[in-house]
Amino acid sequence: MPAPSSPVAVVSSASTESVPPDERIEFWEDHNRRELVGLTCSSYAEQGLVAKETNLAAGALHVAEILGNAHAVERSRKTCRTLPKDSVFASLVLGGTAVFFSGDGVFPVEAGSLVLYETERPYLFAFSAPMRQILVDIPRTVFTERCRPGGVPEPTVLGTRSRAETMAVSALHSVADALVTQRSLPGGDDPETTLLELIRALGARRFEGDRGHLAAIRQYIDRHLTDPALSAQHVAAAAGISARHLSRLFEAEGTSPARYILRRRLDHAYAQLTSGGTTATIADIAYGCGFSGQSHFTRVFREHFGRTPGEVRLAERKRSQ
Q1: CB 61 within 8 A of CB 137
Q2: In the chain, N or C terminus with fewer CB closer than 10 Å?
Q3: Which percentage of the chain shows pLDDT scores above 90?
Q4: What is the pTM (predicted TM-score) of this model?
């Protein structure tokens, strides 16, 4: 049975559009100082800074969706001292191109990339075009416990080195986007846990080798559960590895690719059957979860959960009355 999800709640939102142009920078800096992190901002656009930010809470995580025109934000050494914050930021750049400056170098950032960096170190993040960013604020205690004990050794841009890394960052984008748009994850997965697992996997893969590959593959499977053609061969090709290598990865977890795909489809179906808001028929749910027919779906569902889909739906309706 899928684990219950952590509640996701909108904490605040702000926009500079209704603020006089010559007051927008001060407004933006003050808002971010209160809601996210202390920084200074610069914009050379004729209309001044045009930006919007929505802040959400997902368990222990703070997630901010930021949209704006070309601008730069800087967290100087002085700001780090006067406005301390001890977090790791996972910045998902979904639109626009940017450059990240720090004491460790200059890093170009393309749309579709992830930047991992620590807020206790000075940095400058400059966007040269209209941008969209989803920023995941992970308190250091949470990051060291659930992602990587040593933190982030240096600012790191992920999503450019290999097909597996690109797949993992793409999965992270999908989860973060679902979170900020208030959509459920496949199988009713917990967004906090899923985000942290993917970030842990990406960090492990970049800093410690290939241990994070499996988490990215799992997320790829979750995003393609509705495709009835999804198979071990399909997943292996997308990950750029052999079907034998894929099997070895899952064998270490005590399962196989085929059994994992089936289990995730069943979890997804269970989540829909127990959702009070759905009016989909059992046949619709079966096909929507990638099963070829209702009879096969009913049989494997009963084998896995000990009850038929109809029994699960009826029990949920009685419980909610």
Answers
A1: yes
A2: C
A3: 52
A4: 0.68
